[in-house]
Amino acid sequence: MPSAPAYGSISPRTGLVALLTGLAVILLVLEVGSPVMLTRLSRIERRVESETNAASTLRPFTADGRPTVLLVGNSLLLEGVQLDTLRENLAPQYAVSRLAIEQTHYFDWYFGLRRLLEQGSHPSVIVLSLATDELASRFTLGESFAHRQMSARDFPRVVQETKLDKTTASTYLFAHWSNWLADKGFLRQDVLILLVPNFRELAGRIADHGPHINNPSVLLGMAEQRLPELSELAQTYGVKIVVLVPPALRPDHSQEVQQLGDKVGVPVWVLSPPGEFPRDFFRDGFHLNSHGSEIFTARLANQIRTQIASTPATNAVTSSHPPLALDKNQARPIPHAR
Predict the structure, then answer these.
(1) Overall domain count for the chain
(2) 192 is a domain residue
(3) Strands 125-129 and 268-270: what pairing?
(4) Is 150 inside a domain boundary?
(5) What is the pTM of this model?
(6) Quick one: which of 252, 278, 273 has its CA closest to 321?
């Protein structure tokens, strides 16, 4: 009988080289391909990329001499401020830009602004929109924060301030340089949006919108620590930084935070005292709906127009706004906080 054909054996060294080469090719494809896939799949990613690029080129004044105002924040800013309306309202005096990244908190923006300013962005005014518990939060957006908002030089401080364990810290370090590690969570989310009917609505229903810090002493203690950090950042780069507190249904200690801002020279704008906007001004009890955002945007435009020009970065701003008009949809005045 004819014998079976003999096949050449592969040496262990050759097999190891082939394996490593295959892994390198896979990693290269993921690194190069993940930003492309994410941009194609995600309208949110396209918006964030566009806003980031625009923010990085800001200068204190436009070519026609208008001061530049950069609004930064999370979904509370995205849904609470009607950007086109604000721009139109302030167009004769200010050039308004926005950089909104959902699910971000204080550390995302403190280190994100440090990186943005280090890289040459220089708006005249930065308005940081955060709820008071987000101002006091230790959360970050994870690998995406490490890649998009954290600079390499700030990595040791990020580890210390956010109290990262060694495993998470190493993940942040690799994600700072890796597109794939930064994008994989969002790619998974986009795939779920495509595959699961009404995924966005379901995610909105189960999302935790409650305050993450309930202890007033902890919240105010963190604000007392972090507002001076913002003041120092403003002085270092010669910009004005203002904290904007979005409307809230429940007590959020925003007026106490405002008083702390007065002491350290960081204006804290509370344009709607907690509880002033009724429940039907909110989409989900946390984010404003179109009617609530219309009123809040008008107040913000008035605040920027009347307060920013005359207020240096080292002085506090006392917020002012006209009284609420009658609710357009209901024949009753909107209740004020008590």
Answers:
(1) 1
(2) yes
(3) unpaired
(4) yes
(5) 0.81
(6) 273
Helix/strand/coil for 114? helix
d(CA 160, CA 236): 22
- Please list the rounded mean pLDDT of every run of 10 residues in the chain (338 residues): 59 78 73 68 85 97 96 97 97 96 96 97 97 95 93 96 94 87 67 63 55 83 97 96 96 96 96 96 94 98 85 41 39 32
Q: Is residue 77 part of a domain?
A: no
Contact assessment for residue 141 and residue 108, using Cβ atoms and an 8 Å cutoff: yes
Question: Tokens in use for 191?
Answer: 């795939």
Closest CA to 186 of 78, 77, 46, 45: 45
Angstrom distance (rounded) from CA 309 to CA 316: 13
Q: Which structural domain, as residue segments, surrounds residue 184? A: 143-206
Strand partners, 128: 72, 243
Residue type, 58: L
Cα torsion angle, 28, 29, 32, 37, sign: negative
| Torsion (CA) 273, 276, 281, 282 in degrees, nearest 10 | 50
Q: How far apart are CA 192 and CA 186, in angstroms?
A: 10
Largest CA distance in the chain: 101
Please check whether residue 199 lies inside any domain of the structure.
yes
Q: How far lies 297's CA from each of 132, 153, 155, in Å?
A: 19, 37, 36
Q: For residue 30, what pLDDT is reported?
A: 66
Structure tokens of 20?
Answer: 């490593």
